[in-house]
Amino acid sequence: MISWRxxxxxxxxxxxxxxxxxxxxxEPAGLAVLALxxxxxxxxxxxxxxxxxxxxxxxxxxxxxxxxxxxxxxSLVSGIAVVEALEGLGGQGLCLKWPNDVLCDGAKLAGILIxxxxxxxxxGWLGIGIGINLQSAPEIHGRRTIALAAQGLExxxxxxxxxxxxxxxxxxxASAHAIRAAWLEKGHPPGxxxxxxxxxxxxxxxxxxxxxxxxxxxxxxDRIEVINTGEVLLANA
Length: 237
Fold this sequence. Notes:
Blueprint: E1 5-9, H1 15-24, E2 31-35, E3 56-62, H2 73-88, E4 94-97, E5 101-104, E6 107-119, E7 122-132, H3 157-171, H4 176-186, E8 193-198, E9 201-210, E10 216-220, E11 223-227, E12 231-233
Parallel strand pairs: 1-2
Antiparallel strand pairs: 2-3, 3-7, 4-5, 5-6, 6-7, 8-9, 8-12, 9-10, 10-11
Helix pairs in contact: 2-3, 2-4
């Protein structure tokens, strides 16, 4: 059982930066930081994350008993928890896009950011940042975005945060096999055509699964490449 300690702030620069500060100061696992307004949010690959009023800005601190090499599994865990929580609140048309996006009807609904610090071969601490478009969707160049309000759902950040924490608790100590299986039920199916963009390069192929530590397996002609970072480009997202 995780004893969640949910702290709410009217405004923060970044909930993830607050988690990092508290983790380095020795804060125990279970801290969850919710900001109703975020002025300097961070997204993946150094991007800014826009957070309008009424949307979710949540970060949590964990100290899991896992190898540092398994940190990537927590992008999968977080996505599963978000989809399960939002479906429980009435969300429809939700799916996962590797490694850290939640889509709704093919458009970006949520993003996940993982910060981690190793302690030898193990994880010292791990932070999960979750941003969800509950009320409004920011414009992202080249991407379709959506908010849950477009489905007629009025979900407060506090209600969404509590639902996500409840689902996270179930998955934090789950086996890698169970995590991969659950993600594949919610994610793009094997055989999906995709491009992976990273460092100015692109890899084209078909999705064939996930590695034991959550990496994407991409079938490129007669070989399978293991992808541990990059942006997945799908035709409809």
